[in-house]
Amino acid sequence: MRMRKLLSGIAAVGAAAVGVAAAVKSRAPGFDTATAPVSHTDRTGRNKRFVGMSGKAGAGYAAHKARRVFAGAERRDELDRRFEVKTAEQVVETLGEMKGALMKIGQMASFLDQGMPDHVREVLAQLQQNAPPMSVELVEQAVVDELGSKPADIFAEFDPEPIAAASIGQVHRAITHDGRAVAVKVQYPGVDEAIESDLANADALFIGLQALFPGLDPESIAAELRARILEELDYEHEAANQQHFADYYREHPFIHVPSVLPEHSTRRVLTTELANGARFSEVVATWSQEERNLAAETLYRFAFGGIYRLQAFNGDPHPGNYLFRPGGEVVFLDFGLVKRFDDAALDGFERLITAMVIDGDASRFRGVIEELGLLKPDQPFSDQLVNDYFGHFYDFVVKDGVNTITSDYAAATVRHIFDTSGPFAEIRQNANVPPDFVILQRINLGLFALFGELNATANWRGVAEELWPWTDGPPATPMGEALLQWRRAHEDWEPTRG
Predict the structure, then answer these.
(1) Closest Cα to residue 83, out of 70, 71, 67?
(2) Among candidates 171, 10, 163, 19, which has minimal Cα distance to 93?
(3) How many CA atoms lie within 13 A of 21 on its CB side?
(4) CA-based nearest residue to 2, from 88, 106, 66
(5) Taking a C-beta distance cutoff of 8 angstroms, is the pair 124, 112 a contact?
(6) Nearest 5°: CA angle at 317, between 365 and 89?
(7) SS (H, E, C) 246-264
(8) How much is the pTM?
(9) Pairing state of beta strands 329-332 and 255-256?
(10) Residues 99, 33: contact at Cβ < 8 Å?
(11) Which residues, including other chains, have CB under 8 Å from residue 249's CB and lie 6 or more apart?
(12) CB 482 within 8 A of CB 301
């Protein structure tokens, strides 16, 4: 069963059909450091790579089944494990070489799919920050093209070995001539064409989703995702996003955003302050539950505080974008995918939460759901059924008190969105995801998956009421007390509204 699950996930990535698949392995077996720009940028070429990947996995599975026939029970378990790891590594190698938007889809599998075997997840998790890197020559040429000189001339020191490499670019340590430690993100040459190709292929994905969920408006969803993903290619846009967050959270007691060095940044090179901290895998494996709870509270405060206080959401909540420090301190990285909300959007969020969470008014909640375009109006569903379906996404804040977000809850949330059977099947057929809610689904899919791994425990309702401007509740935790003092000291700085 688990092997078929693994293979179906691989096939899904190959067809770009569901956004759950595998990842990339740093310097995977048989892969040499890239010496040319991202290849297979044309649509046909990249499709062939996916077909070849899926075909190789299928052929390998057939051979594996034949070997199992003559093996004992213990030997079968060993063969299963070896096959699963090898298959994951093959997918990892393919996506690692290709990079682009579909590799970003693969990133999500490493922490979304709680049903994969642990040893497979360990291989896939390397996608979060370690992709096969560019050669030194490519890095130097990219820097010359953007900044006008070689890294050795621009910086006092420049480490040719990347500290992170992912779907769009890779990051190098450097020291400026005035002694500042910095991180220099260099975009892969050709990745913009690769992503354009991947986004063209994505049209098939949304046509397929509409077949499963007829209520969806695929064109508006595709347009929103395309706009946000293409923005990630513009590091000047990302620099503006990151500095906006950095300015707002300056001197914050537990949220840290590295500042941008604009003099060393362009459309395809982004230089920021260098930050340090533990990776998510270390936090999950070795930190105490108390420290994991503090880390989760900071992630929560950053996500929802950004939405309601800064009117901006950093929409890429995956483990590689965080560095953790004891006491709940978190450094937030990568601001390429940021969604900004206007007052009308925030008003809609407020009305939903007020009706569902604060007043418990199922009829009014349904009315807001329909008005915002989340559900077709006048459908033959009871208010209670609508309330039960959409209310799932508010379960963790409905009750005031300590609550644990488990991996089971995170997995149930994914099923709640995509499962086409069960008591909510007809509602799903008539449900939609309007543009303002598209990137917000990364909370349901991504952030809560991380909380599930952390077994995150807190009074989420109390923390939420601190963050909601219309309730502006008192501090619910020691972090809340520290945050209140910080706000009072920085009340002269207000984010841009509108």
Answers:
(1) 67
(2) 10
(3) 31
(4) 88
(5) no
(6) 130
(7) HHHCCCCCCEECCCECHHH
(8) 0.78
(9) parallel
(10) no
(11) 255, 256, 257
(12) no
Strands 169-175 and 338-340: unpaired
CA pair distance 69, 85, nearest whole angstrom = 20
List the structure tokens of 478. Answer: 């020691």
- Other C-beta atoms closer than 10 Å to the C-beta of 51 total 12
Are 95 and 102 within 8 A, CB to CB? yes
| Pick from 230, 278, 255, 284: nearest CA to 111 | 284
- How far apart, in Å, do the first and last CA atoms of the chain sit? 50
Encoding tokens for residue 376? 């077709």
Count of alpha carbons within 13 angstroms of residue 106, beta-carbon side: 39
Q: Which of 290, 292, 225, 266 is nearest to 437 (CA)?
A: 225
Tell me, what DSSP letter sits at residue 272?
E
Which residues touch 156 (CB under 8 Å, ≥6 apart)?
Answer: 174, 175, 176, 177, 179
Crossing angle for the helix pair 73-98 and 101-112, to the nearest 10 degrees: 150
Handedness of CA 88, 89, 95, 99 (dihedral sign): positive
Q: What is the pLDDT of residues 279-333, one digit of tens each?
A: 999 999 999 999 999 999 999 999 999 999 999 999 888 888 999 999 999 999 9
- What's the longest Cα–Cα distance across the chain? 74
Helix (H) or strand (E) holding 363: helix 362-371
- pLDDT tens column, 50-101: 444 444 444 444 444 444 445 556 555 665 555 554 544 444 444 444 454 5
What phi, psi does 187 have (nearest 5°)? -75, 140
Question: What is the phi/psi pair of residue 35, to 5°?
Answer: -120, 5
Domain ranges of the chain: 2-128, 213-231+277-498
Q: What is the DSSP string of 164-178?
A: EE-SSEEEEEEE-TT
Over residues 159-200, the pLDDT tens digits come to 999 998 877 889 999 999 999 999 999 998 888 877 777 677
Sheet holding 255-256, edge to edge: 255-256, 329-332, 322-325
